[in-house]
Amino acid sequence: DTGVSQDPRHKITKRGQNVTFRCDPISEHNRLYWYRQTLGQGPEFLTYFQNEAQLEKSRLLSDRFSAERPKGSFSTLEIQRTEQGDSAMYLCASSFQGARNQPQHFGDGTRLSIL
Amino acid sequence: TQLLEQSPQFLSIQEGENLTVYCNSSSVFSSLQWYRQEPGEGPVLLVTVVTGGEVKKLKRLTFQFGDARKDSSLHITAAQPGDTGLYLCAGAPLYGQNFVFGPGTRLSVLP
Within 13 Å of residue A3, how many CA atoms lie on the same side as its CB? Predict the structure, then answer.
């Protein structure tokens, strides 16, 4: 069990640029979640996948944000035309949906800074 | 919308002291998780509580789920500097899969 892996750990970019983050979940986990966390706050839900299907998206996820999980394994989160308000920690979590109340396991996040 | 509140928001104590932090909601959750997060890292799962009234112990940490499954508490005995971090609670809703997080309690244990 290598845990949830996220890449890159840090990303600095200019406003207006596009960025893409990658998440590799724990291998046997079929659910994958994306969250955004700003300083002093708890994680805010963005979207989640069960296998390759994106089943829920938050209203926080504007049309500049898109997430994919094409083969039901790793996932990518892309932000187009970045804005300064997008600066945050983007966290990925995975869980196994085989029984109720399975907890989520988090990666160490990608910290995005928009200049 | 299901919301979780945590109190206190900040807590600074001396090594060896005891403390309790709280997680409250007006909504019922099917389960509740507690996480600890250190700067620059993702949240690390401490415990999951499922049954109303359930008490779980993890070394010096004691977690309790309220009878009505709307609230939870975390008690730390003889706090150590290594306990410093952001303590987050997260509730799993009765319906749907969208976990709800509280804003966290930031604990600082001074040597």
Answer: 10
Name the nearest CA neighbour of A58 among A77, A45, A41.
Answer: A45
- Three-state DSSP at A57 gives strand
| Beta-carbon separation of A42 and B33 below 8 A | no
Q: Is the peptide bond before B103 cis (omega within 30 degrees of 0)?
A: no
Instruction: Point out which residues pair with A101 in neighbouring strands.
Output: none
CA nearest neighbour of A90 among A67, A115, A56: A67
Burial group, residue B32, by CB count within 10 angstroms (0-12, 13-18, 19+)? buried
Mean pLDDT value across chain A: 92
Output Rg (C-alpha) for chain B, integer angstroms.
13
Chain A residues with beta carbon closer than 8 angstroms to that of B106: 40
What residue has token string 């979780």?
A: B4
Q: Indicate the Cα dihedral angle B65, B67, B71, B73, nearest 10°.
A: -40
pLDDT in tens, B14-66: 999 999 999 999 999 989 999 999 988 999 999 999 999 999 999 999 999 99
> Which residue is listed with tokens 């690390």?
B44
Q: What is the pLDDT of residue B40?
A: 87
**DSSP SS3 for A62:** coil
A51 vs A58: CA distance, rounded Å:
18
Distance CA B85, CA B63 (A): 17
What letter would DSSP give residue A42? -
Q: Which residues of A touch B4 (CB under 8 A)?
A: 42
